[in-house]
Specification:
Blueprint lengths: L21 H23 L7 H28 L3 H22 L2 H8 L8 H17 L5 H27 L3 E4 L9 H5 L9 E4 L2 H10 L3 H12 L5 H19 L5 H6 L7 H33 L8 H15 L4 H5 L4 H16 L2 E4 L11 E7 L2 E9 L11 E6 L9 E5 L9 H19 L20 H6 L6 H5 L12 H11 L3 H20 L5 H12 L16 H4 L6 H13 L10 H12 L7 H9 L6 H8 L9
Parallel strand pairs: 5-7
Antiparallel strand pairs: 1-2, 3-4, 4-5, 6-7
Helix pairs in contact: 1-2, 1-3, 2-3, 3-6, 6-10, 12-13, 12-20, 20-21, 23-26, 24-25
Length: 653
């Protein structure tokens, strides 16, 4: 066996084109990456004397090889148009997870790393060694043979169940069929895109480009409710049994590792620190949002009572519709008028232009790159004439594709070895977009920027979005603020005649966007509570627990006959840590306080933010990254000020 096995690759990953041999590519890529990881592990354990740097370099190569396998299968099981390829990726992901588990439970490998003399290592190498040894202990490497064998079985089954849970959500696209007369209130381009079928009825699906505008604009309350129920029942009842099994597997896994519950195990390596702290955070945010939530909920209900005088409550089937009416009537913001300024091609171009200016980047279109679908576009990311990486934008819905919005890794950037490549997978319309879609694109692009800019570290451990999980959303949530700025919007938002979005309209949008922030925060805490409580203790009836938690945390009542948890996809990846979205938002508001809201396109602060928060990746703790940027520890003042400020009052985005 050679002394060093090379995995250097400074060009982009060679993926097939849309009609290429994808099964062969997936198989060969995984075989090569996993085989390399196994060979490197054997090399580390072969007894050859090595200094600390050499040992850690070999360990780094193991992690690069594993990452190469996981990145490809994790992406393409979610976005590839072929079900055969998606299924193959799921099987190969199970193989990669099994090897990762075996490595984490390998006592000889652990002994090799534990025996490293770290006294002469620099700060980065020391951090890698310390975190790696911690991960081994959290994997159960110090347990007896029987326990480690059970942990292997649990990990393998967790992967299988989680995959099936996600697949059911991805594949279960439901719909309602309606007489065309029931589309009153919808934009004309939406109506034109939904012609009646042979039966004379129009099909409206639960995919986001259908369900979001329909629930926002459709005047027909019964039709809104019918679609909402279908949306909330995706993947039910199939996912009930899977979720129960997944929760039981995780609970046993945590207990075998010496933790009282899965949240305690999961939170140990996050900013929050413990399961109990998650519960405290949920309660604290819910309490902070209560007065704002009650105030705006009362406005919603009062407006609904103009249409239905006997109504005593408003629920999720009506909330988006009446919130839109409030913004139209109280703040003079008509979302259908706003849509006229957000045509998808302009928005995509504007997103690239704005983020390029903010962070000193240029996006060069790649002419005819191999991709998995004709919708996908690719850009090389450049800075000062140097190629930093490549991004792929897969932004429209299709059958079998991931149903939400997220950034996926295709390749992690490693200094001198491989370029970072990332994929944005969203489900936005091809034509006119709601402004909320624009905000989503800015948010998810924030993850993509983080992935590319932090793609020049020596250690795989630090590459890309590698900070604590409850900080991951903060940079993206902060970038959303640029999607509300007048100068930013006027740089790309224009109507069909080319007239830029008016300043007065943007001012109204900014005033109206604050409406509902309190009740939206309470809804987020309802979701966070589901994520946390389901993992804290056994549950006899998932739906009944959801009802109870919704009554406790949400201002909107449960809709009878629905089963939200079955399609709550974050239970697969975020497990007990959905609280992280709001935790990150607290930090995002504080980060944004360092910018001048009157000059968001000025690069002085954005360049400093890029250099101190994004480029370091996982090389520092998140709290230290924030303190380096702000010049002080982060606090909640900006968040609580924002939350308490009534809609329409000045105070920045």
């Amino acid at each position: 066996m050679p002394a060093v096995i090379s995995n250097e690759r400074l060009s982009e990953l060679a993926i097939p084109g849309a009609d290429g041999p994808w099964n062969d590519f997936v198989g060969e890529h995984c075989d090569g990456s996993l085989g390399l990881a196994r060979a490197l592990v054997d090399q580390l354990k072969d007894g050859t004397p090595r200094d600390a740097e050499t040992t850690l370099d070999l360990w780094n190569q193991v992690n690069i090889a594993l990452d190469q396998a996981f990145a490809v299968v994790s992406l393409f099981e979610q976005v590839h148009p072929s079900e055969d390829v998606r299924t193959l990726c799921e099987a190969r992901e199970q193989e990669a997870e099994k090897l990762s588990t075996d490595i984490g439970l390998d006592r000889d490998l652990y002994a090799t790393l534990a025996g490293v003399d770290g006294s002469g290592l620099d700060a980065g190498a020391t951090r890698v060694l310390e975190r790696s040894l911690r991960d081994f202990r959290r994997s159960g490497v110090d347990k007896d043979d029987e326990t480690r064998s059970r942990i292997r079985d649990l990990a393998e089954r967790e992967t299988q169940v989680a995959q099936e849970f996600s697949k059911n959500i991805r594949d279960d696209v439901r719909s309602v069929r309606l007489d065309p007369s029931r589309l009153v209130g919808l934009p004309q381009d939406f109506i034109d895109a939904h012609p009646a079928g042979d039966d004379g009825l129009v099909e409206i699906t639960t995919d986001y480009p259908d369900v979001v505008p329909f629930r926002t604009f459709a005047v027909d309350a019964d039709a809104r409710r019918a679609l909402t129920i279908e949306f909330l029942n995706r993947a039910w009842p199939a996912n009930d049994a899977l979720l129960e099994e997944l929760l039981a597997l995780r609970a046993e896994h945590a207990r075998l590792l010496g933790y009282e519950s899965w949240p305690d195990y999961d939170a140990e390596v996050k900013m929050v620190g413990s399961g109990a702290a998650i519960a405290d955070f949920i309660d604290r945010i819910a309490s902070s949002a209560q007065s704002s939530a009650e105030r705006d909920y009362a406005v919603l209900l009062e407006r609904m009572q103009l249409d239905r005088p006997t109504a005593t409550a408003i629920d999720g089937a009506d909330a988006s519709y009446y919130a839109e009416l409030i913004r139209r009537e109280n703040f003079d913001v008509d979302a259908q008028d706003v849509r006229r300024y957000f045509d998808f091609p302009r928005v995509r171009a504007g997103l690239l232009d704005v983020t390029g200016r903010l962070f000193g980047l240029a996006y060069v279109p790649v002419d005819g790159p191999p991709t998995w679908h004709p919708d996908v576009t690719a850009y090389d990311v450049m800075a000062d004439g140097q190629r930093l990486g490549r991004i792929y934008l897969d932004l429209h819905p299709r059958e079998g594709k991931f149903k939400h919005a997220a950034q996926f890794t295709l390749a992690s950037g490693i200094a001198g070895k491989q370029l970072p490549e990332g994929v944005l997978a969203c489900n936005v319309p091809r034509g006119l977009m709601q402004h909320s879609d624009v905000v989503t694109l800015f948010h998810e692009f924030g993850h993509l920027l983080h992935h590319v800019l932090a793609g020049r570290h020596r250690w795989a451990r630090f590459a890309g979005v590698a900070t604590e999980w409850d900080f991951v959303e903060a940079p993206s949530q902060m970038l959303e603020e640029w999607a509300w700025d007048l100068d930013v919007l006027q740089s790309f938002a224009a109507n069909a005649d080319g007239a830029p979005i008016p300043a007065g309209l943007v001012a109204k949008m900014r005033a109206g966007k604050e409406f509902g922030k309190g009740y939206l925060a309470r809804t987020q805490m309802f979701y966070a509570a589901i994520s946390y409580v389901l993992h804290r203790e056994p549950v006899d009836d998932l739906t009944e627990l959801v009802k109870t938690l919704q009554a406790t945390f949400d201002v909107f009542p449960y809709i009878e006959g629905t089963h939200f948890h079955a399609a709550f996809g974050h239970l697969e990846g975020y497990t007990s840590a959905y609280y992280t979205y709001m935790w990150s938002l607290v930090i995002a508001k504080d980060l944004f306080s360092a910018f001048d809201p009157e000059s968001l396109l000025d690069t002085t602060t954005s360049y400093r933010y890029r250099d101190t928060v994004l480029i370091p990746g996982g090389s520092m703790d998140a709290a230290d990254l924030v303190e380096a940027f702000l010049g002080r520890p982060y606090n909640v003042e900006a968040f609580t000020s924002w939350l308490s400020r009534p809609p329409g009052e000045p105070g920045g985005p």
